[in-house]
Every structure is written in structure tokens, then in C-alpha cells.
């Protein structure tokens, strides 16, 4: 019996070693295949990368451009190659690498006329950096996620507009900033709803007030006012509740939180502050408390998700020619 176990162990060990060797050889073969011939000139590598970009073979373009950068760092094609690789990385779904390349271009060539493009691509890349593979192709609601990347992207587009207000990329950057701002406002509303449901009324008021004061003209402002009104009423603070109600009446008289006479009906009704077992086990997908809550969430999510996806998923323009 011991001899049989010994033989089986040896066979399994040999099989594992053979498998590891096979994978190693495959990796070596793959890396050798990706390595471009040393005989290629700088112009050859540049034209190879250009053809790959035209063919939308972005992995091949990245390989050619990286080779060009490493072999000819001070050649006549160096600046163009660095700007091209910013684009190639972005289109190859490598946003972090795209941002790093954009930063490198801006640092090395601050007076170059391609800096505005590098800033623009940097903003695009930041907006997709936190997205997984599934999110790039399936319309999931991004307004419920951490807004850090959205804020970073917004700031980078703002930097582009401050430094190059007449850039040809400025109009698109402005539109993306509008969508990002709407997304950030929607995130604040989700957070306010979370606090409101758990009767943390002051926290809900603070979130709503932040939207009203800092994110004016976003679709989330009337919802933020309604959250403030309801929270103030729960706390028995009638004066600020009436002030918020007056703002809602004047600016959004048709809001669903108001009746036909302009009286505040309610914002959301949470039957049970503590989520049900089904709601907890399904992470909020099922077991919501009221039909009204579901409808309100659906309405908020559709608009904000559409705008956020428009800001994130549009294809980037090709880089300008510097030579």
C-alpha cells in the first residue's frame, strides 16, 4: 500500500513539474513572439504602430510604441510616440497606464501643443479607472459607487479648461463635466436616502444641503430639497422646513413631493427602517419596503446612469500629429 502511494505521489509530482515547464515555455514563447526585431528602425516602429492604430489592434500598437520608446528615447518620433501610447493604452482598456503616460508627456514636454490632448485623455482615463470589465459593457448604476474617480476626472477636465479654454477638446470636456457633476449629485442623494431610511435626519439634511448649495442646476436639486424638508419635519424644525419648502415651490412647482396646491406630501415613505431579511440577504435587490420607494429609486437611477455612461464610454479621438 505504501509503495502504491509512493508511486502515485511521484507520478503526480512529475505531472505537476511537466505542467509548470509547459506553462513556462509557453510564456517564453509568447514573450519572444512579442519582442520585435532589433533591425527595425525608429521610422519602421512608428509606421508599424500607426498601422496597428488604424486597424484598431491596440495591443500591437502599444507593443510597437513601447519598443520605440525604449530603443529611441530621444529620436524625432519620441514625442509623437508618447502621445500615441496615451491613446493606445486608453483604447486598450488600460486607463491607469494611459494616465501615467499622459502625466509623463505633460512633465517632459510642458510647452508642446499636444498637452491639451494629454490632459483630455487623462480626464477620460480617470473616469474609467475604477470600472471593471463587466461595467464597460453592461449598464450598471455607477452613482452608488465611490465617487473618487469621478471627482478626479472632473478636476482634470477643469484643469484642461483653465489652461486651454480655446482647445478643440474644451467643448466635449464641458459636456463631460456636466455629466460627472450630475453623477456626483446623484451619489449624494443615495447617501442622503441611506441616512433618511435609518432616521439619521441631520446627516440626511447635510447631504441634501450640500447638493443644493454646491451642485445647483443638477437634476438632483429638487430631490435634495425634498429630503431636507422631510428630515426637518421629522426633527420638528418647522422654520427651516418651511424655508426649504418655499424654495421647492418656487423653483419646482410640479415636483412629485408637492400636491396640486403646493403642499408638501412626502418624499419617501420607509415602512421599516430596519431592512428585511430578504433585503439584507440580496444586498438591497429585493425586499424593498414600499412601491413608492422602488419607483423613486428607478427614476433617479435611470437618468443618472445614462448621463454617467455617456461621460465614461465614448470613444476617444485620435491624437494630433505633432510633426
What is the averaged pLDDT score? Answer: 80
Strand share of the residues? under 5%
CATH fold category name of the domain at 185-312: Serine Threonine Protein Phosphatase 5, Tetratricopeptide repeat
The CATH class of the domain at 185-312: Mainly Alpha
The separation of the N and C termini measures 76 Å
Largest sheet: none
Could you say which structural class the secondary elements and strand pairing correspond to? mainly alpha
Relevant terms:
0% strand, palmitate, 323 residues, 13 helices, TPR-like_helical_dom_sf, single chain
Characterize the structure shown.
With 323 residues, the chain is mainly alpha-helical. Among the domains are: 38-92; 185-312, Alpha Horseshoe (Serine Threonine Protein Phosphatase 5, Tetratricopeptide repeat), CATH 1.25.40. The chain is 67% helix and 0% strand. Helix 2 packs antiparallel against helix 3, helix 7 runs antiparallel to helix 8 (170-197) and helix 8 (170-197) runs parallel beside helix 10 (221-235). The relative contact order is 0.08. Mean pLDDT is 80; it is low at 3-8, 17-32 and 289-312.
Amino acid at each position: 500500500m505504501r509503495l502504491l502511494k509512493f508511486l502515485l505521489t511521484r507520478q503526480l509530482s512529475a505531472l505537476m513539474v511537466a505542467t509548470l515547464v509547459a506553462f513556462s515555455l509557453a510564456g517564453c514563447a509568447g514573450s519572444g513572439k512579442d519582442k520585435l526585431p532589433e533591425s527595425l528602425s525608429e521610422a519602421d516602429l512608428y509606421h508599424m504602430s500607426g498601422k496597428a492604430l488604424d486597424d484598431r489592434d491596440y495591443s500591437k500598437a502599444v507593443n510597437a510604441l513601447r519598443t520605440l520608446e525604449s530603443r529611441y528615447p530621444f529620436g524625432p518620433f519620441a514625442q509623437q510616440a508618447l502621445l500615441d501610447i496615451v491613446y493606445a493604452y486608453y483604447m486598450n482598456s488600460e486607463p491607469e497606464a494611459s494616465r501615467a503616460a499622459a502625466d509623463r508627456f505633460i512633465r517632459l514636454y510642458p510647452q508642446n501643443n499636444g498637452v491639451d490632448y494629454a490632459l483630455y485623455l487623462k480626464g477620460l482615463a480617470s473616469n474609467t479607472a475604477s470600472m471593471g470589465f463587466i461595467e464597460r459593457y453592461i449598464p450598471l448604476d455607477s452613482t452608488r459607487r465611490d465617487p473618487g474617480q469621478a471627482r478626479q476626472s472632473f478636476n482634470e477636465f477643469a484643469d484642461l479648461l483653465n489652461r486651454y479654454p480655446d482647445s478643440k477638446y474644451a467643448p466635449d470636456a464641458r459636456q463631460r463635466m456636466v455629466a460627472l457633476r450630475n453623477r456626483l449629485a446623484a451619489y449624494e442623494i443615495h447617501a442622503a436616502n441611506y441616512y433618511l431610511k435609518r432616521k439619521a435626519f441631520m446627516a440626511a439634511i447635510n447631504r441634501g444641503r450640500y447638493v443644493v448649495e454646491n451642485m445647483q442646476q443638477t437634476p438632483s436639486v429638487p430631490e435634495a430639497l425634498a429630503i431636507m424638508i422631510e428630515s426637518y419635519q421629522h426633527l420638528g424644525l418647522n422654520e427651516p422646513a418651511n424655508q426649504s419648502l418655499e424654495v421647492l415651490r418656487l423653483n419646482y412647482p410640479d415636483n412629485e413631493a408637492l400636491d396640486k396646491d403646493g403642499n408638501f406630501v412626502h418624499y419617501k415613505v420607509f415602512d421599516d427602517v430596519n431592512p428585511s431579511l430578504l433585503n439584507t440577504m440580496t444586498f438591497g435587490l429585493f425586499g424593498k419596503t414600499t412601491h413608492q420607494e422602488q419607483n423613486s429609486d428607478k427614476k433617479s437611477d435611470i437618468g443618472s446612469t445614462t448621463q454617467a455612461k455617456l461621460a465614461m464610454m465614448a470613444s476617444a479621438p485620435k491624437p494630433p500629429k505633432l510633426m
